[in-house]
Design a protein that fits this description.
Length: 318
């Protein structure tokens, strides 16, 4: 007897390969706005993996990762099931914005409700009609507000299986991070589903290295879960993993023009000069020094900043 998988009301049988359209909301004109759910199930039963991107509509690098996985045929398993959702927040993707049309952050609305706001209803339908089928999920994100994340994975530190899966994914950094209340990751964990969150790049931007890291990681996870073996298609070797146990933001002490002197991924020590903030007229410039020793995980790419803005995120190993 094979495992029952039902998505959007349709039973997915062994050997099925199809794309279903999630249609739960319309534009003001009543035009449909559909979310493609790409499903491939092998004839042999096994693990169900969900690969998801675009919860935030402006985080397009995650969309590119899942798109390439589909276009290159990596989403076709020899055992088990792979579900791909390249763009979940189609509303935001079309408008190049992070949020849903109701102004809400979709990743703070899970598991949602049938009678709530638009984003809450959407989250509820996705959880109950699609996501609940998955045993594991790779959730692809980027830095928001033009803040560039060095490619890394995030997970809670109390789960040994997730820690092993994060090491298999194979980014240079693995960051322990508390789950945000009402996030997709938080809602899935309550269903005992395993979620690895990938972060890399910045909003409204594509980065080839970040894309490569994301695809390679997904292929390694597929092999580990017994779905398929695409080892020959890996671009990079699995690096030694550096565990980030905490992170601290360096913020602007004054408003002005921000110049960075460091690169994401590199190590810095207390007292190192990380950048500077100046007025735009040439009268003053203040150096930014590190208050911590660790690795640069995120760097703000906006040249104009306000006092208090987050500039640099430093990952701490102790």
């Amino acid at each position: 007897m094979y495992k029952e998988i039902k998505i959007l009301g349709k039973e997915i049988l062994p050997g099925d390969s199809l794309t279903l359209k999630m249609d739960i909301a319309r534009l003001y004109t009543q035009s449909k706005l559909e979310v493609p759910i790409i499903i491939n199930r092998a004839k042999e039963d096994g693990t169900c993996l969900l690969m998801l991107a675009g919860i935030h509509g402006d985080e397009v690098n995650g969309v590119e990762i899942v798109r390439q996985i589909v276009s290159k045929g990596y989403h076709i398993p020899k055992k088990g099931t792979i579900i791909c959702v390249p763009v979940l927040n189609v509303f935001g993707f079309i408008n190049k914005t992070r949020e849903f049309p109701d102004g809400r952050d979709l990743n703070r609305m899970f598991p949602g409700s049938k009678t709530g706001a638009l984003a809450s209803r959407f989250a509820n339908d996705f959880m109950n009609q699609v996501a609940f089928n998955a045993d594991y999920c790779l959730d692809f994100h980027t830095g928001g507000n033009m803040r560039f994340n060095y490619a890394h994975v995030r997970l809670q530190n109390s789960d040994d299986e997730l820690t092993e899966l994060a090491k298999v994914f194979g980014t240079k950094f693995m960051m322990y991070a508390k789950q945000r209340e009402s996030s997709f990751r938080h809602a899935m964990s309550k269903l005992n589903k395993k979620v690895i969150l990938f972060e890399g790049g910045k909003s409204l931007s594509l980065d080839r290295n970040v894309t490569r890291y994301g695809i390679d990681g997904a292929l390694r996870v597929m092999k580990y879960l017994g779905l398929n073996d695409f080892t020959e298609n890996l671009v990079d070797k699995n690096p030694d993993t550096i565990v980030i146990k905490d992170s601290k933001w360096i913020r602007a002490d004054q408003s002005g023009m921000y110049r960075s002197f460091i690169k994401v991924g590199e190590r810095v020590e207390i007292g190192d000069v990380l950048g500077s903030v100046s007025d735009p007229f040439g009268f003053s410039e203040k150096k930014i020094k590190s208050k911590y020793s660790g690795y640069i995980i995120n760097n703000n790419h906006l040249p104009m900043v306000n006092q208090g803005d987050a500039l640099i995120n430093i990952g701490l190993c102790k």
